[in-house]
Design brief:
By secondary structure, the chain is of the alpha+beta class. It is 25% helix and 24% strand. The protein has a single domain, classed as Clavaminate synthase-like (Double-stranded beta-helix). The protein starts with a strand and ends in a 12-residue tail after the last strand. Bound molecules: N-oxalylglycine and manganese (II) ion.
């Protein structure tokens, strides 16, 4: 197995391993690299759904994003192959994912990991980008670190979608039926590595003790500072690529493309630890 760091503070490309037949020994090396690099890119795997699910289950229990399915399509095509209606909640949330975020922070327990595999990708655009929130926290000046250390923000999909001009139907899909909007610290201590990380993203709003305007401008400033080189990289997908990332310490976003072109990805999401990834407000 070859693990080649990407030219950024996060990310590595892993070759010389078959994710469809991953051994326990290989998994130990992958897991170690994952904690170091936070995002691992596996080109040309053409991973089977069962193997992608099994890879997620090596990390932890899976979230069920769509009723009983362990893997879900992140796709602008419906099951019958027709284009998803651009007015639908589904399409609008795909568009929303072009904003920096970390998965499931609007749910009672935010996600541990996500694994995305590319099935069909557009020729131009449609990359995914990741940003290193460990390095971002470290790069903040000390007074900012101290100022935000005790701050917490609410995380809501209604909030983030409203910001991109979309009012989803309540209960329409995953994340749109929770009653209790979780409150999460801006500085998260990674439960495995112990590293402090900046825990923000598009769902975050309403920092306690600040006005809405102050909160929004602080979150915008932090995001703009955090999500720039050397803390970011983009992956230009080829069909068959697999990427796994650690939602506890990186932000990610999709990049735009020609929406008339199919873009079909398969997503497996690993649930967070119900203690370390729970909100801090009583519910
Ligand atoms: C996701 C996500 C980005 C992309 O799967 O959680 O945000 O590029 N995907 O599809
Ligand atoms: Mn996402």
């Amino acid at each position: 197995m070859n693990i080649n760091p990407i030219n950024a503070t996060l990310g590595a490309t892993v070759t010389g391993v078959d994710l469809n037949a991953l051994t326990d020994d290989q998994w130990r090396s992958v897991e170690e690299a994952w904690y170091q690099y936070a995002v691992l890119v596996f080109p040309g795997q053409h991973i089977e759904e069962t193997a992608q699910v099994a890879l997620g289950e090596r990390i932890g229990n899976l979230e069920r994003l769509v009723s009983d399915h362990k893997a879900v399509p992140i796709s602008n095509r419906r099951a019958d192959g027709k284009a998803v209606d651009e007015d639908s909640d589904h399409f609008q949330i795909l568009k929303g994912n072009e904003g920096w975020h970390t998965d499931s922070t609007y749910m009672p327990v935010s996600a541990r990991a996500s694994i995305l595999s590319a099935q069909v990708v557009p020729a131009e655009g449609g990359e995914t980008e990741w940003a290193d929130m460990r390095a971002a926290f470290d790069a903040l000046d000390q007074s900012t670190q101290e100022r935000i250390r005790d701050m917490a923000a609410y995380h809501s999909l209604f909030y983030s979608q409203a910001k991109v001009g979309h009012k989803p139907q309540k209960g329409a899909s995953y994340g749109l039926d929770d009653q209790n909007i979780p409150l999460r610290p801006l500085v998260k201590i990674h439960p495995v590595t112990g590293c402090p990380t900046l825990f923000i993203g598009r769902h975050a709003h309403g920092i306690s003790g600040l006005s809405d305007a102050e909160s929004e401008s602080l979150l915008e400033e932090l995001t703009a500072f955090a999500c720039q080189p050397p803390r970011v990289f983009a992956h230009k997908w080829q069909s068959g690529d697999v990427v796994m990332w650690d939602n506890r310490c990186v932000l990610h976003r999709a990049r735009p493309y020609d929406y008339s072109q199919p873009r079909i990805m398969r997503h497996v999401r690993v649930a967070g630890d119900p203690i370390s990834e729970a909100g801090i407000n009583p519910s």
